[in-house]
Amino acid sequence: MAIKSFKRYEKKYLLNKTQYDLLIPKILNYMEFDGHCKNNTNYNIYSIYYDNDNNDVIRHSISKPYYKEKLRLRSYKITKNPEDIVFLELKKKINGIVNKRRIVLTFKEALDFLEKGIRPDTNDYINNQVLNEIEYYLNNNNVHPAVFIGYSRKAFFAKDNHDFRLTIDSKILTRRYDLSLESGHFGEDILDQNQYLMEVKILGSIPLWFTRILSELKIYNTHFSKYGTEFMNYTKEQLNIKRREQLC
Predict the structure, then answer these.
(1) Residue 193: which of 1, 14, 9 has the closest Cα?
(2) Domain count, the chain
(3) From CA 120, how far away is CA 110, in angstroms rounded?
(4) What range defines the domain where residue 57 resides?
(5) Distance of alpha carbon 211 from alpha carbon 214, whole angstroms
(6) For residue 236, what pLDDT band results from cuts at 50, 70 and 90?
(7) pTM of full prediction above 0.90
(8) pLDDT confidence of 2, banded at 50, 70, 90?
(9) Which residues contact 169 (CB under 8 A, 6 or more apart)?
(10) I need a surface site. Which of 41, 49, 93, 158 has the fewest CB within 10 A?
(11) CA–CA dist 163, 161 (Å, integer)
(12) Can you give the CATH number for the domain in which 97 is found?
């Protein structure tokens, strides 16, 4: 097992196809592709988000509280066997600062922990601290797999500062059925056609060269949550179903 901990600010932007096409060559003057982007291609991310029957986790999150947290199980490929590597993450946001606690497990270890309460065996102090946090969350929140969210990602690091990271996501597909990392990438796309979600992840200030590019291309900061958008779409769909039933 291994652990990573992240603490940063995140800013989000929605791009159209023209902005996207103009942006990439400009940022490549200052940035380089993430190691996951082999031969400059996109890579995929698959996540299962955990919530309760009343969707209290995401309801609380979209209310813009001072503190919020989400639990998710993530993979960078479609899991094929119990020994495939997955990432169990507790993502917290405190007054706008994102803190992500992550532990790397086998798929079997993760499911045994989440579904049966069987704690992975480790002698590492930091790994145990993260497991303690996730175990506490599970004991105090009656959550279960609620939503699948998968997408295609292109990622970059600044050449002179790897703490400045940029990701661009497309084909953000979601579903509330067949909630398994083994089932593949399908569902409802929450982005409009030819639309992209760009996220800037920073520890300090945004570089001046990047703000100039944003200004030139008229790209503006926005509020966008993948899970939040999925939930709003789901809520509208449920209301429409009820209205149709009342008319029958």
Answers:
(1) 14
(2) 1
(3) 8
(4) 2-247
(5) 5
(6) very high
(7) yes
(8) very low
(9) 151, 152, 153, 196, 197, 198, 199
(10) 41
(11) 5
(12) 3.20.100.30
